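pinned: reference chain
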Amino acid sequence: MQAVADLLGVDRSAINNHFANKDALLMDVALDVFAEAFATVQIGTRRSWQDVCRKYARGFADSVIATGPLAQHLVSGAPFQGTVLHAAEAMLGAMVDGDIDSDTAIRMLALLNNVCLQYAHDHIAASAAAQGPLLTALRQALAERDADAFPHLARIAVDLPDVSARTQLDMSVEIIIGGTEALARARASHATR
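pinned: its structure tokens
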């Protein structure tokens, strides 16, 4: 906090008046970097809600990745800024226009944000290490136990798919979209009975 105060040429108490602690300051900086990156994402509204969802997810994840080490200060439920609100509004509007009820749309958006945030954290961690955190944890867990008792896990520990690769995010988004479509069909079918 003192280093920031010195850089700004203000008394440390001025910084403390705005931020309760170092973590709050770092979260604010991370949110600012994230918002700047996300501001370049053009969601658009003349697409299907599914395509808007895909664009939103990629933009959200890429913007978290752009924060680099500061991403650890972006957590689920963080007060994301105006640029995200505009994109979220566009996505929710596309979903409601596509006959997805508001309750399902907002729950889907929350799930999508969580998935994108976790993907980005995994991507950043994998970029900083020789192997991704999931593979490291799996190999460590198997080393502490009888690996023969877990033949499927032992097999994939040798060649685990990279969960930090873009294909992981794309698959997760497609599962969310497919689940939302199935839920919407089920609710529509139930409503017509």
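why pinned: Residues 38-191 form a domain with the Tetracycline Repressor; domain 2 fold (CATH 1.10.357.10). The chain is about 70% helix and 0% strand.
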